Sequence to fold (384 residues):
Amino acid sequence: MRSLLLAFGLTLLALGTAAAPARADEVPVQSETRSPALPPSLDDAISRDSTADPVEGRSATDATMARALRSAILEDWDSALDYAQTASAGGEPAGALLAGHILLHGLSERGQDDEAAVRWLRRAGDANDADALVVLSRLASASRGGLNAFQAEDFLARAAETGDARAAQEFGLYLMDRSDPGSAPAVLDWLRLAAESGRVPAYSDYAFALGEWVHGPHDLLAMRNWYERAGDNGEAQGALMAAAMHLNGEGEGADPARGVSLMSAAAELGQPAAMGQLALLYFQGGAGLAADPSRAADWARRGAEAGDAESQFLYAYALATGDGTTRDLERAYIWVLRAGFDRPGSLADDPDRDRLEAGLETALPPARRDALEAEAIAGAGLGG
Fold:
């Protein structure tokens, strides 16, 4: 049986398939099935204005903006664009932002027009609208709408300087991606600002910068604390990382029992790698957790079905031995093959997986192996 936990570096590799915060060079792409999400400030404005209070009694510009937002809720994009442009003419930056969003994604009958979108977004950006400046930065990185890549940093810096936590996070990540040692203090300052502002998605980014980033201070205790705060606020990736650090003794005062608790939270939050690690813990017990092969096999199955290679190996092990579940050599062979398929986090060169695969090949007839291999490929989405 395997050691209690994967090496910390392998845990980081497993996180490579998880959803990551948006980077400054990502450009919004319209979904084929539904309208793209509104910029966060417009979404917040809709939430604040969801009482359906009459617009009478408001200023003309405020009333027009309210109509624009309600038209957007109804996906009446032509009306929303007209109202948004009118509100912008009255001095409302959110109107310019909404108009730019509609034109950028081609939501109205007037179609997509990057250059017109940039004009409206610039108007919002000139009024220090952080969302507009973030989008302009992404468009500049992609050289869209008449913008050039060299403008991206300026737009994003201006967004961060408004004090917006999301913009501060994105600017910190933008500078981090450049990997310039001279930018290290700025990276840490912007990510700290975003994290200390209470922006949960920034907690794990700041943790990484503190502990793992090559130009950071390599402060493992601070790193673990921020990962733990992320996990305590419902972020599965942060919970997994903090759990691994506690269980591996990373950072002063590491607490294995706390690691078990965080690993369980990460698994419950849907983190596939955490499901595999929790399965290991239930197989072996320890750190205040009683061994429970049935729970181990169940978590391994859930992680396997979610695509985690370690979970797939563990579930294959459980099926091959009958430890915690009904013995089934054919299903075991399917899962051990999937654990070795070429992808991030693959166990293709893992000796334990290789031995289990070889043992199952010996136990199964060649004709069945061929059929099961085809099933393994088809079920993993690797078929031709």
